[in-house]
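Re-run requested by the PI after the first attempt was lost when the workstation crashed. Everything re-entered from the original request form. Ligand of interest: guanine.
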Amino acid sequence: MPGQVIDGKAIALKLREAIMERVKALKSQGILPGLAVVLVGEDPASQVYVGHKAKACQEVGIKSEVMKLPASTSEAELLALVEKLNARPDIHGILVQLPLPKHIHEEKIILAISPDKDVDGFHPLNMGQLFIGSPRLVPCTPYGCLKILQELGLDIAGKQAVVVGRSNIVGKPMAALLLQEHATVTICHSRTRNLSEITKTADILVVAVGKPNFITGEMVKPGAVVLDVGINRLPTGKLVGDVDFSSAAEVAGWITPVPGGVGPMTITMLLFNTLEAINYARK
Ligand code: GUN
């Protein structure tokens, strides 16, 4: 029997309604949540993502300030802007859209963002807190994946979880979150041998490799929960994930589509983190 398709949009909508209520309550206490989104250069995909983030903020009542800087911006100029945003009491969250132009050292910028305003959860302090089991601000995409599992009421404790991809943005924090929820976690990557033997052991399979249709139905355990983080545009213009949806859906118990699966959850968790960051703001 084909697996059930997970409606990420519907889950995101439900969470956003709760976020909207929290924003209303904060406003009644005189607090207007503020998010700064910084975009350097003209990367077309980044421009689209930043636009979606600003629109989502507006929809729930969070104030967003999008700052678009030319690709020629120097590292020192970007660091100076981050410092200014760190000091602004009306800005609770700071997001610098990645990737940055090659002449800017990403790690330096991530380190410069105050860990208290780091709504991406990329700062080593927040990443470290996650890995020692005391999460603070958690990276949005893996957090969204966790919320999907929780909202569907799917058990994580004791399950075999396999994460394909070891990026700092998704794979590593995803593994830490699943471990925190008591799954037995394996991380696979480009040098992994016998990948399909490992993926076939997964009760929960999270795929974030950036390769269209990389995981096929034969690599999936019958009944598994498959979360597809990939967003790839084919030369035909079609948007596909890292999982070959049609073959995997025949085998999986639950599966996220692309688009409409993990994607809407990522921005939802950014909104959530912006409200969480208010708790870390210096009074
Ligand atoms: N580029 C792709 N995904 C992300 C993300 O989650 N945060 C930031 N800052 N940049 C990204």
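Saved to the shared folder this time. The longest strand covers residues 34-40.
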